[in-house]
Design brief:
The structure holds two protein chains of two kinds.
Chain A: H1 5-20, H2 33-37, H3 41-55, H4 70-78
Helix pairs in contact in A: 1-4
Chain B: E1 3-5, E2 9-14, E3 17-22, H1 32-49, E4 54-59, E5 64-66, H2 71-79, H3 83-105, E6 110-115, E7 118-120, H4 122-128, E8 132-136, E9 140-142, H5 156-163, H6 166-175, E10 178-180, H7 181-186, E11 192-194, H8 199-210, H9 215-225, H10 230-244, H11 247-258
Classes of the chains: A mainly alpha, B alpha/beta.
């Protein structure tokens, strides 16, 4: 069965919380994740690789240009599933 | 010199395996310090290679293998001098790094790059001179030079062409995007894909395997199958120096160096 965008979003939030060792409740779908997680671009690339490995997709990093919230990130990944 | 502990890198030989460890924070950027020490390594390599059958190049830094050229140093130095002098300085740097990388590329032993994390630009080019690339699943490869108005200058294009189909080379070069180790393995760039943190262990196991074979035969086989594209490498240096004087490069470098954003490594 096809994963919905909401499911994709939930998986991203769970994965990000686990990897960056923050409470899942702290991560809001529409907030700036660079600020919330206090990460830089190298850590963002690390997250991208984890998401690609988890969802078995390939995401050109230029598609993340301007993407700062989890909901938009989920939408980009969903487009590749 | 069988052992060396520098500020940017260190090496030692043990049981017929040379291990070259990169360890300059934040991510092994290749500037004048790293180049000086790489030259020391290249000078010592032929002596060490007489008693070794394998070389493993790896990074001890969490961030990754190597993020490429030290762009901050490049920007600062090119600003301190007249344009013609800056270009001459760049050409000199490129010729020196090419000598180092050509030495590793043609070294009379099997070479392995054990990579993880960011393997970008000059770092990617360092991995490409090795006979084998073993990558953990978190490795990412990229030629971001076009974002700076440049092309790879450490031999990346001729060496990538040597290893991969032209379509993949065009994708990496013209989009400036990074791709992950799984994709790199799928296209044949990475010979072994391993779990996070396991690249060096896998490289060491491979080096043990390499030690079982007749050394002279292995050297002859490598020479036969892995020509060094000297003419194209020289052309790459010339093209890089031509592009370096263009306004796009000044703008690209300034954007990278002066940016206070958190995202300088994203396109």
């Amino acid at each position: 069965m096809m994963t919905t965008e909401e499911q994709t979003l939930n998986e991203i939030l769970t994965l990000a919380a686990q990897h960056f060792k923050v409470s899942r409740d702290k991560l809001k779908p529409d907030e700036d994740f660079f600020k919330t997680l206090n990460i830089d671009s190298l850590q963002a690339l690390d997250l991208l690789t984890r998401l690609e490995n988890h969802f078995h997709v390939e995401m050109p990093d230029y598609e993340l240009q301007g993407v700062t919230d989890f909901r938009t990130l989920a939408s980009r990944i969903q487009a590749r599933l | 010199m069988d052992q060396f502990r520098g500020k940017a890198l260190s090496w030692e030989v043990s049981a017929g395996v040379i291990e070259l460890a990169l360890h300059r924070e934040p991510c092994n950027e290749i500037g004048s310090l790293a180049l000086d020490e790489l030259e020391k390594f290249a000078d010592a390599l032929s002596g060490m290679a007489r008693q070794a059958h394998a070389l493993i190049v790896h990074s001890t830094l969490k961030a990754g293998f190597c993020a490429g050229a030290d762009l901050r140093e490049l920007y600062q130095r090119s600003h301190e001098m007249e344009k013609a002098q800056a270009v001459a300085g760049v050409r000199d740097f490129l010729e020196r790094i090419h000598r180092v990388l050509n030495t590793i590329d043609g070294a009379p032993l099997t070479t392995i790059a054990a990579v993880h994390g960011v393997t970008f630009g000059g770092g990617f080019e360092l991995a490409l001179v090795c006979d084998l690339i073993i990558a953990d699943k978190m490795a990412r490869f990229c030629f971001p030079e076009l974002r700076l108005g440049l092309i790879p200058g450490f031999g990346g294009i001729p060496r990538l062409k040597r290893d991969l189909g032209n379509g993949v080379v065009r994708d990496l070069l013209l989009t400036g995007r990074s791709f992950n180790a799984t994709r790199a393995h799928a296209v044949g760039l990475v010979s072994q894909l391993v779990a996070e943190g396991e690249a060096l262990r896998a490289a060491r196991a491979t080096a043990v395997q390499l030690g079982k074979f007749d050394r002279r035969t292995a050297i002859a086989a490598k020479k036969f199958i892995k020509p060094i594209p000297h003419h194209e490498l020289k052309q790459e240096i010339d093209l890089f120096c031509q592009l370096f004087v263009e306004p796009a490069v000044e703008a690209g470098l300034r954007k990278f160096v002066e940016s206070t954003e958190l995202q300088p490594y994203l396109p």
